[in-house]
Design a protein that fits this description.
It is a single chain. By secondary structure, the chain is an alpha+beta fold. The protein has a single domain, classed as outer membrane lipoprotein receptor (LolB), chain A (Clam). Helices cover 17% and strands 46% of the residues. It is built from three helices and 13 strands, in the order αββββββααβββββββ. 23% of the residues are buried.
Length: 247
């Protein structure tokens, strides 16, 4: 067998190996999407703890969240200064906010939607409205005893992150951690997840986001989680934003 044939065979096997890895990464991410986006609709009470680690300052807020398909409502109920402030996410590119003080619904621009939500460490860009598979191109970079480590590169150049890394549980396919990196490749923040089983499904009931740049940390705890209760489409409209708490 001559040298040219050996090189060709080596190239074919290398290409097949890379292709298989890409398929494996896609399969893993698709399974994670099934965990993260299984519910037709979801609602919960939310407790936020926002910590400025540099100054030792702690701020607590409460809210309620409603989700249906790609649409999400996030409404603050405490403190009084924030009560009634509500955001409606229709898609990754369409978000509205209701300001009760002015009785006004305003569309959030792309630039402002990437900022932190009401001084927390979470932003609207952290989790895609549809699925990670549709928003990112995955690469399997490492396998540990308990996790798959995926590197996800945004398909949309307007995404504020250069890439993200996700540690996916090998057995249940929910994320343990998600790390967010800037366009320059430097780490920005990291989210850690805690999941509980509800009606046969794994549901995140606690997420902690540590922002390395700001030296701050926000913990979201979800309580009274309800799944697939048939939330009406009329809730997820600009008109529905002005309605007060429904439960």
């Amino acid at each position: 067998m001559n040298k040219t044939v050996l090189i060709l065979i080596s190239f074919i096997f290398s290409f097949q190996s890379l292709n298989l890895q890409a398929q494996d990464a896609g399969t893993i991410l698709a399974k994670m999407d099934k965990v993260m986006f299984f519910a037709k609709d979801k609602q919960a009470d939310v407790e936020l703890k926002i910590e400025n680690l540099k100054k030792g300052k702690v701020t607590e807020k409460r809210a309620e969240i409603y989700e249906k398909g790609t649409k999400k409502i996030f409404r603050y109920v405490y403190p009084k200064s924030d009560s009634g402030i509500t955001s409606l996410t229709v898609s990754d590119n369409e978000t509205y906010i209701y300001l009760p003080l002015f009785n006004m619904v305003k569309k959030i621009t792309t630039s402002s939607s990437l900022g932190n939500m009401n001084k927390s460490d979470f932003s609207l860009a952290d989790k895609p409205a549809i699925s990670y598979s549709e928003s990112y191109t995955p690469e399997l970079v490492k396998t540990t005893e308990n996790s798959y480590i995926l590197k996800l590169t945004p398909k949309n150049l307007k995404n504020p992150y250069g890439f993200i890394k996700i540690s996916v549980d090998k057995k249940y396919y929910y994320p343990h951690e998600i790390e967010y990196y800037g366009k320059d490749g430097k780490p920005i923040k990291k989210a850690t997840y805690h999941f509980v089983k509800l009606n046969g499904h794994w549901v995140a009931d606690k997420i902690t986001m540590f922002n390395e740049n700001k030296g701050s940390r926000t913990t979201i705890t979800l309580k009274n989680i309800k799944i697939n209760k048939g939330l009406p489409d009329s809730m997820f409209t600009k008109e529905g934003l002005k309605k007060k708490k429904t439960r």
